[in-house]
Write a structure and sequence with these properties.
CATH superfamily of the largest domain: Metallo-dependent phosphatases
CATH architecture of the largest domain: 4-Layer Sandwich
Shape: elongated
Strand order of the largest sheet: 1-12-2-3-4-5
Largest sheet: 6 strands, mixed
Number of helices: 10
Distance between the termini: 50 Å
Radius of gyration: 24 Å
Length: 388
């Protein structure tokens, strides 16, 4: 990614905000209008550096630039969205006033909305920062399964997804997640991709807490698209060295019993596929739910698929899985982008049914880019199987 075009785009979009808002602020106080222009110029310069800091500078300067740039990016997003909404409101008010002259005080509306806009953007960014940086809350989800044997009644899967260890998410953040997951005493732990944003050399030591994850049947991982941007093969090796089972279009069988008196443990298939778009990076990693289930015994009572993107659901349903766990969407991460996710993915967040297949889409346990979550809180999910 080149700096010049990103900087130009940033300057143009920030200038649009200033052009539409600063003059109305200046009618209240010239210093307010000038301050907005200065803040927008600083933000326009910092936003590209937040994305490219590791290219243009070395630590610790690159880390500071990343933090400042990504914080500005989150604020800029809210400013831009609110500016567009303000334009729509002002246009509507103009139409009402044209139809009924004097019914709307246009000058007053221009001033009040200009004053409110930066305040609302700052509040949304501050709350979004708090939501992003806190340890994800546990979301409890019951999944009703037809003909579920008594042995699997209450079987739990702890799902974490889309942590995005990278420029602003490091060891301590990951450690807090691991501690909370271990407190759930789950039967199985699933990590559904986009764990990292960077190379093993840069970030390998920050995922070390994952080796502490504890459950009855172990921890399983599938690749997300960001693993392929970051050197998927190296990350697969690194995760396996931590005791995490990486599933690449394959499955394992687990035998679960609630106590030693059970006459016969329940056989559960735990399968995983590579990311939906993995074949663009490595043809041998083409995502294939049908292949992941090949050779599974007919007497398996429950078939679970880990697939990073919800788009795998159609193939998973045809293959005969009972439940698919996915992530990728972040639930939109912050408003209003949650409304656009459905243009690319069949499900944005939560539990949904596709014919006989249940699909649970996590909002993610970390965040990508701006440290901001607004209207789409992060989550650690505890899914519990119950009899339908």
């Amino acid at each position: 990614m080149a700096l010049a075009p990103v900087l130009l785009l940033s300057l143009v979009l920030h200038a649009f905000i200033g052009w539409r808002v600063a003059p109305d602020l200046a009618t209240v106080n010239m210093a307010l209008g000038t301050s907005l222009w200065v803040a927008l110029l600083i933000s326009a310069l910092l936003v590209p550096l937040g994305l490219l800091a590791r290219i243009v500078a070395k630590p610790p300067l690159s880390e500071w630039l990343t933090w400042l740039g990504l914080l500005c990016m989150g604020l800029f997003s809210s400013l831009l969205v609110l500016t567009v909404l303000r334009e729509l409101l002002l246009a509507l008010a103009w139409l009402v006033d044209a139809a009924s002259p004097g019914s709307v005080s246009l000058a007053h509306l221009h001033t009040e909305t200009a004053l409110a806009l930066p305040i609302l953007a700052l509040l949304a960014t501050a709350l979004g920062f708090w939501n992003a940086r806190r340890t994800a809350a546990v979301v409890q989800v019951d999944v009703p399964i037809a003909n579920l044997p008594e042995t699997l009644q209450g079987f739990t899967v702890a799902q974490i997804s889309d942590i995005h260890v990278g420029p602003t998410i490091k060891t301590r953040y990951v450690q807090r997640i691991v501690d909370r997951v271990n407190g759930l005493n789950a039967n199985l732990i699933a990590i559904t991709g986009d764990l990292v944003d960077g190379s093993v050399n840069e970030l390998g030591h920050h995922i070390q807490p994952l080796s502490q994850l504890s459950s009855t049947h172990g921890t399983f991982f599938v690749t997300g698209n960001h693993e392929y941007y970051s050197g998927a093969h190296s990350w697969i090796t690194a995760l396996r060295s931590l005791g995490v089972r990486v599933l690449m279009n394959e499955h394992v069988l687990i035998h679960h019993s609630t106590d030693t008196q059970d006459p016969e443990p329940a056989v559960v298939v735990v399968a995983g596929v590579a990311d939906y778009n993995a074949h663009y990076f490595d043809k041998s990693h083409r995502s294939d739910p049908q292949k992941a289930l090949e050779g599974a015994p007919e007497h398996a009572v429950f078939k679970l698929l880990l697939a990073h993107q919800p788009r795998s659901a159609e193939a998973a349903s045809q293959a005969g899985f009972d439940l698919q766990l996915s992530g990728h969407t972040h639930g939109g991460q912050f408003w209003p982008w949650n409304h656009f996710v459905r243009l690319q993915q069949p499900f944005t967040a939560g539990l949904h049914k596709l014919r006989d297949l249940w699909v649970y889409t996590s909002r993610g346990t970390g965040y990508w880019g701006p440290p901001k979550r607004f209207g789409a809180p992060s989550e650690i999910t505890q899914l519990r199987l119950v009899r339908a």
